[in-house]
Amino acid sequence: MPYGEIAFDRSRLDVLRDLLLKLETQNFHGVVKITSSAGLFCLSGNATDGYQPAPPTLPISRCDLVGNPLDEALSGQQRQSLAFANLVAGVRQRTAGAITVALESTGTTHPSTPYPARTDGLTAGDWNKAAAANNRVDFTVESSTPQ
């Protein structure tokens, strides 16, 4: 997911809608777990005017901040759009609770891609490639029906 985008919105809304429709059609019973993870980006800017990913050629040592201030500032409800919340509530109602959706945010604690070693030659572009891979939303489906 791109830096600065709300985790439970936009393209994830379309993915969830398609997944829930498929699960409803199959009479699925269980939980759809959606987990957001934040990448630690090399950023330029400041707290007053905001931050954006640093230019790719900037040395990592010259980042104004390495982190994800937008993700850190959001509460649980702010991580999802109204359309996303309505879709989650609607499936629970339509399926009489057979399908539930659980949302979780792990912050920056579970990177899927290792960050490069901070060396003199490391650039913001190289660092932010790993950050972008770690800035993600994962979907897991767990059936409550015995197999």
N-to-C SSE series? HEEEEHHEHE
Approximate shape: elongated
Please count the helical segments: 4
Helix content range of the residues, please? 25-40%
Secondary structure: number of strands: 6
Count of all domains:
1
Uncertain stretches of 5 or more adjacent residues: none
Determine the N-to-C terminus distance: 34 Å
The biggest sheet, with number of strands, parallel, antiparallel or mixed sense and barrel status, is: 3 strands, mixed
Question: What is the strand content?
Answer: 15-25%
Radius of gyration: 18 Å
Largest beta sheet: strand ordering? 5-1-6
- SS class: alpha+beta
Rounded average pLDDT: 91
List the helices and strands and how they pair.
Blueprint: H1 11-25, E1 30-37, E2 41-46, E3 50-53, E4 65-67, H2 69-73, H3 82-94, E5 99-105, H4 124-134, E6 136-143
Parallel strand pairs: 1-5
Antiparallel strand pairs: 1-6, 2-3, 2-4
Structure notes:
With 147 residues, the protein is an alpha+beta fold. It has one domain. The chain contains 4 helices and 6 strands; from the N terminus they run H-E-E-E-E-H-H-E-H-E. 22% of the residues are buried.
Which properties best describe this structure?
single chain; 147 residues; alpha+beta; 3-stranded antiparallel sheet; 4 helices; 30% helix
